[in-house]
Prior knowledge:
Helices cover 37% and strands 18% of the residues. By secondary structure, the protein is an alpha/beta fold.
Amino acid sequence: MTEPTKPFPSRIVCGVDLEGRAQHAVPAAVWLARTLRAPVDFVHAFPPAPILWGKEEHMPEWIAGTEAVAGALREALRVALAEAAPELGLAADASDLPALVRTGHPAQAVVEHARAVHADLVVLGSHKRRGRLDLGGAARGVLAHAPAVWTQPGPLRPVRRILAAVDAAPEARRVLEVTRDLASAFGARVRVVQAFVAPVLGAGVPTVGAVTPGYVIENLRARERTAFEAEVAAVDWRGAERETRFEDGEPADVLLGLQDEHDLIVMGTHGRTALSAALLGSVAQQVLREARIPVLSLRIARRTYLI
């Protein structure tokens, strides 16, 4: 007898700053909490107390600073809700929202609070490229350690069409099951997509000379498509309307090319650190940088990296 699936999410944490990057994340977190019936906390990071650096004389200033930030945080939540689309029914009064100030780096503060309260979903604002390698940023740090991250790059809107991205790995089942549950809660249709990248010389596929034989590629493509469709069919979709799409091309390009037809992308990520992602590349990071719609990234531990 299989154990009942734990509801997702069981608790939500939303990272908030006072510079406007969380403007769209706040209403998204409130809407998710109400729709999915999960409690939500709003967390803002503040520099550690100066006593840690041996500057006790500045402690009163630091305490006054935290109190001022707490008030500013409450006002930021109120403004963000007031500016959200009125048809979503989000109250502009933020007085009942848990607004918490935590010390430390933003990513550290959010992740540590999420762990402390056993939250399995973190909601963040826009995650855009800030440099050629894009090694920094709170969003990357949260993505590497949180179980699931919802990024909200623009104004909140109802989710009616979900794009679920899977690959040939066994871990695809979690992406499909979470997508099914969200589709049921949102009343949304689902399109499940897998991108097929043709093998190249040196990728472990038998080759003749410098060219991979066409029949090898076609056979591999047919096997992957059959396995993909079987994996989707094996999920109990509980009445959710769905379709499948098997595309040729790089996964990030396929997803970004389909985003305008959907309201949400659900995908897995391997939670790489900043340097490993920069060196090895990451579909999730590219999608997060360029997506114009929300992205739900589910952290899946599949491979071990040295960094």
